[in-house]
Amino acid sequence: MDTLMRSTITRAVKGTKPFTTARKHALATVRWVLATEDGRFVAVNDTAQAGLVRDPAKATIYDGRDNEELKAKFFAAVLGVPLTVVLLDQ
Description:
The structure is a single chain. The two termini are 18 Å apart. By secondary structure, the protein is an alpha+beta fold. The chain has a 3-stranded antiparallel β-sheet, covered by helices on one side. The chain has one domain (3-87). The longest helix is centred in the C-terminal third of the chain and has 12 residues, at 68-79. The protein has 3 helices and 5 strands; from the N terminus they run H-H-E-E-E-E-H-E. It is elongated.
């Protein structure tokens, strides 16, 4: 997990107990997308087909409850391009 993501999640869950609704709500506030180096974003449609889009508004947004490393590796393999996790403004 990258340092910025780790610190963002740590700040969000500070003061919550593990496996509680409060912790889940806190993790949901950490929002991120997957992006390529050339500015394209991963978008998954309602039939679970993944693709790359240029419009960030169409990107699939994940939150702190999702495993960012697993998702990045999976979609990089499916789409055949390296991906990075991009945190969205809090």
